[in-house]
Each structure stands twice: as structure tokens, then as C-alpha cells.
Amino acid sequence: MSILVLAEHDNQSLKPVTLSVIAAAKAIGADVTLLVAGHQCGEVAEQAAQVVGVQKVLLADAPAYAHQLAENVSQLLLEQAQGCSHVLAAATTTGKNVLPRVAALLGVNQVSDVLAIEAPNRFKRAIYAGNAIAQVESDESVQVLTIRGTAFDPVAATGNSATIERVDSVFESADVSFSHEALAKSDRPELTAASIVVSGGRGLGNGENFDMLYKVADKLGAAVGASRAAVDAGYVPNDMQVGQTGKLVAPELYIAVGISGAIQHLAGMKDSKVIVAINKDEEAPIFQVADYGLVADLFEAVPELEASL
Amino acid sequence: MKLLVAVKRVIDYNVKVRVKADRSDVDLANVKMALNPFCEIAVEEAVRLKEQGVASEVVVVSIGGKACQEQLRTALALGADRAIQVEAPDSPDALSVARILAKIAETEQPGLILLGKQAIDSDNNQTGQMLAALLNRPQATFASEVKVEGEHLLVTREVDGGLQTLKLTLPAVVTTDLRLNEPRYASLPNIMKAKKKPLEVKTAEDLGVTVGSKIRLLGVEPPAERSAGIKVGSVAELVEKLRNEAKVIA
Ligand SMILES: Cc1cc2nc3c(=O)[nH]c(=O)nc-3n(C[C@H](O)[C@H](O)[C@H](O)COP(=O)(O)OP(=O)(O)OC[C@H]3O[C@@H](n4cnc5c(N)ncnc54)[C@H](O)[C@@H]3O)c2cc1C
Ligand SMILES: Nc1ncnc2c1ncn2[C@@H]1O[C@H](COP(=O)(O)O)[C@@H](O)[C@H]1O
């Protein structure tokens, strides 16, 4: 058995979620090759080589891979996956975009968003907005898996010195090109990696009121998330959505403010260790999962919370 | 340009599904079913492209048992022109669905194929990407804006870091995200009209695809239940508990 893992990075640094994917690979128990595909991403390969549990780093450095275009990266993965028993990527928007293409080219189904490895071909994953956990067994010739980062404790980022091998193949589709991007900039911790998350919902009423949450977050060193309703209403950008169809978070502490607790929202945060809900409606379903519930008007409670931290 | 839209019959998004007592699967008996919300967004986008004069025809396809004709009728009521049901067992696997859709695309020759980013039952998020790979065409997943410019498509995608815009050459595959549009409600006259729109039935065998997956469901279990905790009476009490009981803040 050997496992090919697609590294998640921004051409400058390796994203922490990759450490969780390596942890999943180690649970499968075979040699791990980490593929760094990008442009001017030599530094990422250096970091990747230090990750504990990685036997070999493959570095494919070409403009065609600069933006992780699925058409190009999937062909590269297909080439490099020859002879591999498993191909893994994080269940992030990058992994979800690229990996099903690899699966289709290999003629297999993908097991999406794996949250437990039971055996090299037996996995657990959430279905129906997390209302059921399915156990599946795969007889596919190759296991193509996306991994839920929050479900696996990351391996150590340093302590290893794997060999780095260059890959010269360049796959470049003429039918797609990167146009532009608008990436959110924030000095706060990354939502899916933060140990404290403060999230706001429709109850916040508008985007300016999120400032109250940013202030609390800054005192706690927390990331800020949101419900779909808050994103749809334009209070905050899409990258802050937590839920079944947004980001999955599992921090030590999740504070839900003005969020009712729809199943789609719960699917994204109910694995948090401690949940706090602040809501003026004592019947709000969020209280059914909250360790500490405060029935209060958020416009009074949140400034008070900030002041007492 | 013809548009092809793949739609799936799934559990209504308001329903909280339960695991069967024998844990063999989830219990879908007497559960309200609906058009997958992301597919509804895909249909809406296609209909808008037709209304803008960019597209000439909107064809919707669903793969599954006869009951999925209900969702095809919903799509027709929303403005699609014609429907194809491909008879197959319910909840076919993603690769089989992608293979069937690829066969249909070969005959229909759509300029653009729209799918939901995710079916809210399987939560797979893979069919559109697979279809694009099988057709060897470009893809834009998680779309929040789609603009047709001649032979090209400009698509803005919702990615973890923010928004990314890609330029694709048609034909292409697009999967929809929540912010792409707000689907309309079907009006009663349109629901009536939809009953008369053409709905063709094919089988997977007709298309030369054997539906079946090498991934077997061994069983399902309910998620770890969280027991509701306590209500605190004040912010001061909350902070005290978080500090001294839960020990999650300093
Ligand atoms: C296909 C699909 C996918 C979805 N995916 C997601 C997803 O990924 N993530 C997600 O979050 N949702 C998702 N949703 C939406 C979900 O169903 C809910 O609509 C959404 O989560 C509601 O957001 P909310 O709790 O902010 O708003 P609401 O349900 O409107 O709740 C607002 C809450 O704020 C409280 N409130 C109002 N004012 C105050 C105040 N002054 N003080 C205190 N409390 C106050 C109210 O009591 C209420 O409980 C999805 C839906 C669909 C159909
Ligand atoms: N049985 C099906 N029939 C038609 N379309 C489907 C079917 N299954 C999945 N799809 C399409 O693929 C999208 C993504 O589904 P999935 O990859 O299963 O999450 C859905 O939103 C549909 O557009």
C-alpha cells in the first residue's frame, strides 16, 4: 500500500489542515507521499518535508498549478497516483474541487468527508447534515478520500526530513484560466483551525453590528463565523459561513450569538467541545446543543461580555 | 445554446432524518421529499439564462425511481422546457450518475451543464466534478455568479479563502452554491402547464451504464448526542462558568 496526499497551501505555506490529512493517512498505515503542486512553491515543499509521517515530497512547480485549477491538478494526481492504494486530500473547497475529478478518471467513487478510518478500506462519514454517521466499505481498486480536518488530530509539523523529488509533468488545460480573486484578509485565526469561534446570525441585524463580535473575538484570540442567514443578508462574506454547506469547525469553545440553530448550522459546529448560545428566544433550538445558554438580548449581553473579558 | 440541469430528489431540508432501529440505514418512510435545494438554484439559473436570451432550451434530468418525476415536474414548473427521467434504483452512486449524465450530454450536446454543488442527503459534493472529468470539460464548482460572454463563461466561486473567478470555454460544467440566486416559487398556472411539458423516460441500460457501486453501506449510527447543558442567568455567571468550570477561557 502507498498513499498519495495532495498538500493544501497558498504557494507560500503549507496549510495546517494537511497535517490532519497526514494523520488520517497514518491511520491507514502505509507510506505517505505528499504532492505539492503550485507555482514558486519551493518553500512549501521544504515545510512539507519536515512533516512527521511523510516519506517523500513531490514538488510540481509550474504556472499551470498556481491556482490549483482542478483540470490541471487532477491530471497530475492521476499520473502520480499510479500504483497507489489511496489518494487523499482535505475536504476543503480545494480538495472537494479537485479530488472527484481524479476519482472519475480512475473510474472509482470517492468517499467524501471521511471522519474516521476503521480499516484501510472501511471508513465513517456523516450524511444528512450530520444526522447519521455512515460506515462504508469500499472494494474500489483505489481509495479516493477527502478528509474532514477537524476529525483528525494533526501530526507534528516539524521533526522530519523527507526527500523532495521534482516532478516535471505539466498539465495545462486550454479551456480554463484563472481570472481574479478577492480573498478575505484577517489578522484573526483561521476559522477552521481556531480554538475559539464566535459566530453571529441574523439576530445581529446588520454588518456593522458584527463589530461587537470582532471585539469579543479579539479579546479571546478567536475567529469569527456566521450563519447562512447572516451571509445571505450580506452582513459578512461567504468564507465565514459555518454549516453543512459551509465550513466545519470543532473548536474548544463555540459562541453562537443570534443564531437559531437550524440543522444545517448545527452540522457545522456541534462537534465543538463547549458550546455557548446567546439568544433572546428561550425556545431557540440552539439551546438544545448548548452547554451554557444565556437567554438575553445580544445587544446588551455581547458588550457586557466584552467588558468582562 | 442548450442547457442541461441535473436534479435530485432528496429529503426536504426541514426534516431531521432518523436512523432506523436496526441501524441498517436512515428511515425515509413517510418522510417529505423535495427537489435538492442546490438543484433548485441550478434550475433557476438556467431559466434566467433562457429569459435573458442566452439559452434556447432548458432540459432537466433526474436519475432514480419513478418518484423523481415529481421533482422533474417541479423543475418544469419553474421554467424548464423538457425533462428526462433515467430509471435506476433510488440514490444511485455518484460515478454512475456522472456516467449517465455524460451519455445524455453526448446526445443532447448542451453548451452548459448545471448541477447542485451537493445533494443534501449524501452530502457527497462530487457528481459535477466527475461529470466534467468524464466529458474532459472545464468545471466551475460552488458558483455564486455566472456570466456567459460569447464562447466563454466567467464564474465566481465561493472558496474557503473568499471568492475566485475563473474563465471557462464552453461547453462547461457548473455547480451551484447558495448565493447564486434566489429561486422563484412556481405559480399555479405554471404548475398546470408543467404537467403537459414533455417528460421522457429512459433506463440506465438504454444508455449502456450499469448502475452500482463498489462502496457498500455497512450501517449507520446516530451522531453522538449532545445533552443540553444549563441556562445561565447573567453574563457574569457565563464568564465565571467558562473560566472555572469549562476552563476554556483565561
Ligand atoms: C441547502 C441549504 C443549506 C444550508 N446551509 C447552511 C449552512 O451551511 N450554515 C447555516 O448556518 N445555515 C445553512 N442553511 C440555512 C439554515 O436552514 C437556516 O436558515 C440558517 O442557519 C438560519 O440562520 P440564523 O440562525 O442566523 O437565522 P434565524 O433562524 O433567523 O435566527 C435568528 C436568531 O436570532 C435571535 N435573535 C434575534 N434578535 C436577537 C437579539 N436582539 N438578541 C438575541 N437573539 C436575537 C432569534 O431569536 C433567532 O433565534 C442552509 C439551508 C439550506 C436550505
Ligand atoms: N440521482 C441523481 N439524479 C440527477 N442528478 C443528480 C443525482 N445525484 C446527484 N445529482 C446531481 O449532482 C449534484 C451533486 O450531488 P452529490 O455529488 O451527490 O452531492 C446534485 O445537486 C445534482 O445536481
TrEMBL record, chain A:
<dbReference type="Pfam" id="PF00766">
    <property type="entry name" value="ETF_alpha"/>
</dbReference>
<dbReference type="InterPro" id="IPR001308">
    <property type="entry name" value="ETF_a/FixB"/>
</dbReference>
<comment type="subunit">
    <text>Heterodimer of an alpha and a beta subunit.</text>
</comment>
<dbReference type="GO" id="GO:0033539">
    <property type="term" value="P:fatty acid beta-oxidation using acyl-CoA dehydrogenase"/>
</dbReference>
<keyword id="KW-0249">Electron transport</keyword>
<feature type="domain" description="Electron transfer flavoprotein alpha/beta-subunit N-terminal">
    <location>
        <begin position="3"/>
        <end position="182"/>
    </location>
</feature>
<feature type="binding site">
    <location>
        <position position="279"/>
    </location>
    <ligand>
        <name>FAD</name>
    </ligand>
</feature>
<dbReference type="InterPro" id="IPR014731">
    <property type="entry name" value="ETF_asu_C"/>
</dbReference>
<keyword id="KW-0285">Flavoprotein</keyword>
<feature type="binding site">
    <location>
        <begin position="258"/>
        <end position="265"/>
    </location>
    <ligand>
        <name>FAD</name>
    </ligand>
</feature>
<comment type="function">
    <text>The electron transfer flavoprotein serves as a specific electron acceptor for other dehydrogenases. It transfers the electrons to the main respiratory chain via ETF-ubiquinone oxidoreductase (ETF dehydrogenase).</text>
</comment>
<keyword id="KW-0813">Transport</keyword>
<comment type="similarity">
    <text>Belongs to the ETF alpha-subunit/FixB family.</text>
</comment>
<dbReference type="GO" id="GO:0009055">
    <property type="term" value="F:electron transfer activity"/>
</dbReference>
<feature type="binding site">
    <location>
        <position position="202"/>
    </location>
    <ligand>
        <name>FAD</name>
    </ligand>
</feature>
<dbReference type="InterPro" id="IPR014729">
    <property type="entry name" value="Rossmann-like_a/b/a_fold"/>
</dbReference>
<dbReference type="InterPro" id="IPR018206">
    <property type="entry name" value="ETF_asu_C_CS"/>
</dbReference>
<dbReference type="GO" id="GO:0050660">
    <property type="term" value="F:flavin adenine dinucleotide binding"/>
</dbReference>
<protein>
    <recommendedName>
        <fullName>Electron transfer flavoprotein subunit alpha</fullName>
    </recommendedName>
</protein>
<dbReference type="InterPro" id="IPR033947">
    <property type="entry name" value="ETF_alpha_N"/>
</dbReference>
<dbReference type="InterPro" id="IPR029035">
    <property type="entry name" value="DHS-like_NAD/FAD-binding_dom"/>
</dbReference>
<dbReference type="Pfam" id="PF01012">
    <property type="entry name" value="ETF"/>
</dbReference>
From TrEMBL, chain B:
<dbReference type="InterPro" id="IPR014729">
    <property type="entry name" value="Rossmann-like_a/b/a_fold"/>
</dbReference>
<comment type="function">
    <text>The electron transfer flavoprotein serves as a specific electron acceptor for other dehydrogenases. It transfers the electrons to the main respiratory chain via ETF-ubiquinone oxidoreductase (ETF dehydrogenase).</text>
</comment>
<dbReference type="GO" id="GO:0046395">
    <property type="term" value="P:carboxylic acid catabolic process"/>
</dbReference>
<keyword id="KW-0813">Transport</keyword>
<dbReference type="InterPro" id="IPR014730">
    <property type="entry name" value="ETF_a/b_N"/>
</dbReference>
<dbReference type="Pfam" id="PF01012">
    <property type="entry name" value="ETF"/>
</dbReference>
<protein>
    <recommendedName>
        <fullName>Electron transfer flavoprotein subunit beta</fullName>
    </recommendedName>
</protein>
<comment type="similarity">
    <text>Belongs to the ETF beta-subunit/FixA family.</text>
</comment>
<dbReference type="InterPro" id="IPR000049">
    <property type="entry name" value="ET-Flavoprotein_bsu_CS"/>
</dbReference>
<dbReference type="InterPro" id="IPR012255">
    <property type="entry name" value="ETF_b"/>
</dbReference>
<comment type="subunit">
    <text>Heterodimer of an alpha and a beta subunit.</text>
</comment>
<dbReference type="GO" id="GO:0009055">
    <property type="term" value="F:electron transfer activity"/>
</dbReference>
<dbReference type="InterPro" id="IPR033948">
    <property type="entry name" value="ETF_beta_N"/>
</dbReference>
<feature type="domain" description="Electron transfer flavoprotein alpha/beta-subunit N-terminal">
    <location>
        <begin position="23"/>
        <end position="211"/>
    </location>
</feature>
<keyword id="KW-0249">Electron transport</keyword>
